[in-house]
Amino acid sequence: MSSASTMRRVSLRNLAAHKVRLVLTVLSVVLGTSFVAGSIIFTGTISTAFDNIFDKVALGVDTRLSPAESRASGVDTAVLDRLEAEKSQLGISKIVPRYSATVTIAKADGTALQTGGAPSVGTAFTPPAEALSTTESMLEPGGRAPVGTGEIALNASAAKEAGLSVGSTTTLVVSRGAATPMKVTVVGIVDLPQDTGGYVNVQVQESVARQLFSADDRPAFIEMAAVPGVSATTLTDRVQAAFGDDYKAQTGAQVRQEEKDRVNQFLDVFNYILLAFAAIGLIVGTFIIYNTFAMIIAQRVKELALLRAIGAGRGQITRSVLLEAFVVGLFGGLVGLGVGVGLAAILKAVTTSTSGLPSAPLELTPSAVIACMGVGIVVTMISAYAPARRAGQVSPVEAMRESATDGASSLRRRTLAGAILGVIGVAVIGIGTSGQGAKYASTVGGGALLMIIAVVLFAPALSRPLVGALGRVLGAPFGKIGRLARTNAVRNPRRTAATAFALTLGLMLVAVVGTFGSSLKGSIDTAINKNLSADLVLATSDQGALPTSVVTAASKAQGVGTAVSFRIVAAKVDGQAVSGISPTGDLGAVTPYEMLDGASKSIPSDGMIVSEKTSKSKGWKRGQVLTFTGYDGATVPVTVSGIYKDSQILDPWQMGEGAYEKLVPAGYRSDLLVLVKAAPGESVDALRTELTAATKDFLTVQVEDRAQFVGQASSQIDQMLAVLYGMLGLALVIAVLGIINTLALSVIERKREIGMLRAIGMARAQVRRTIYVESVLIAIFGAVLGVILGSGIGIALVRTFRDLGITTAVLPYGLIGITLVAAAFVGVLAALWPAVRAARTNPLEAITDA
């Protein structure tokens, strides 16, 4: 038998002989790789589900004609007339104009049907004889086509969710234009090929759709079928040539692919987020695996020395350790793949039930398997490489004579390198905080990376004084037990630092996210309380648009002094896309602002006022005439009548109503929100009751006071943070496992020492308390480093986002306090099993153990 084969057998038997060690090491690989597998499987599954839906979109369509500019209000009616006139010349057999708009429909109980993020659209019902596909207008038995303004057909899944059926009466609200809520009757249930959970499709007669869903009778796009003998590509080329660069002609296949690409682009972003957290888990896991293998090598030094003495070469020793790492990585990847499938199933179940995403069977793709296995093996091999090399370089004689210890010189070199990198990192972060924007934020990110590496290198030197100081304070109530725990915690600074760093990295990320979130909430709170004088705010519960009729209804409510709606303006100036606000009514009555250049506070109907920051950045001055070009081609000259002091609420500019109405067709106008000021002497509570009654039929309108409006904005941030904290919990779980792993191996390493203590009278409970205190000291050390590092990086990042309105850096003191307390709890939790194991050490067996 060859020596290589012998070494392989030794490696495999060593793994089999230490099952607990194997399981703990594998777990650190599993938690990282499972997120890699889960994210790829989940996004692949959702992508397949959308592909299945979009494969059924535009069925029977040979050519679709739509505006080249996606924000345009639709296709000019003259284009539709020309298509009808040149129908035979172009080779068209059928032409179907499509009208659509976002709508909300009431359920049987009168509340709004929530889609969970899926589209809720109104369209025109196409009679079967005019439809391009036989599956387009499939009415369920007992229903019929809608006729007139009071009738609708509803897709089957929405009807079921809303509790509506043929004959049901409900309310329909169009989310743009001046349309008021309509009482409608369901006269048909439509089976749609692309029907999926959450999707709502309300169909009305075409003449009604033109009135409700279009701007100046313009269809959103026009779909066509070719006559026999003319291919879809040929017809599309002819239509494109006929209508030039203002319009985009696509085949049905191109439309379906475009929809798929748009969704996949969103899913890619979601996948990158999941993979980023997987990377965090893997980075934390890397330190644990490294620490584990380093301790294993230290404990097996005599075994390895014996192998060297009987002829094993350095390379063979190194390869034997790497083989163990390969087996751990392979096994961890396999288990991680299985856990990833479960994780993807959970994500799918949650998202399909709460967000309106479609459902499909889980897709276990080869790429998910390869990525999971590859990442598990590579990360483990890299983590184990340094300990493996160290194992191969130990001299047999030295190993037999001495135990492996940290060399002071290497620790000095490491500490010096960490200090240098730390100084450079602080300098880079300082440069990043000197400006604003993505470039400076990236600079801060680079400095943060240097600081993390610096902490890795410098932490062993920090561990002795900091853990020692913590031990004197926290260990004091435990007397000699506390002093022994402190000694154990500081005796191997490399191990202590490596164990604590897993927690440091996790809590650093928590502190960064917490600081950013607290600062964002604090800035919003300050901005609203400082710049908003309105008593009440009208907005939608789903953060959608309000029809312009909401402000009309609100203005008629008893007790209203001023009602101002805010409408988004999207246009181009000098070929560059710009966006701002067009308020209706007396802006100063609901949100005070200070004019710096220009005497009048009122906004001229055909003019605009500009914030100080925008004036400087774009060079717009008082008296300058700007030409705004709407996405439908309308050009409107607008005079800058004044410059106002920067306001977070009113940034970047405010346009007069007259100019806005020239730019945006009536059917496409909508409000972002409505601010209401009570008339003098009127009760705000009474006014709120009146406004609630006046806007009840709009279904999604919420009437909030300023505190509730601030709370609503904060709750959205909290929801985002909750998701991030939940995902960062992965790193903390791995950190706990790291502490468990290290303590368990430390107990094995100190078996004879623990046996001696037991032999001279230490009780089992005292042994357990020693391990508990030691673990708590390590955990708090890691937590303190993480909180300090994360808070500093978080404050620096906040400073680079001042231009986005995050003006105040706020430390999450509550989170920091909870984190430090939780770290102590984590220390106790992580020590439970190692402490019990240590307490069960048999004194005689431990003392006689060679």
UniProtKB/TrEMBL annotation:
It is found in: Cell membrane. GO terms for cellular component: plasma membrane. It comes from Williamsia herbipolensis. It comes from the Bacteria. The keyword Oxidoreductase does not apply. Signal peptide: none annotated. Belongs to the ABC-4 integral membrane protein family. This is ABC transporter permease. GO terms for molecular function: transmembrane transporter activity. InterPro entries: ABC3_permease_C, Macrolide_Exporter_MacB. PANTHER family: ABC TRANSPORTER PERMEASE YTRF (PTHR30572:SF4), MEMBRANE COMPONENT OF TRANSPORTER-RELATED (PTHR30572). The chain crosses the membrane at residues 272-298, 321-347, 367-386, 416-434, 440-462, 496-516, 722-748, 771-798, 810-833. Pfam families: FtsX. It is a multi-pass membrane protein. The keyword Membrane applies. Residues 276-395, 727-843 form the ABC3 transporter permease C-terminal domain. Keywords: Cell membrane, Membrane, Transmembrane, Transmembrane helix.
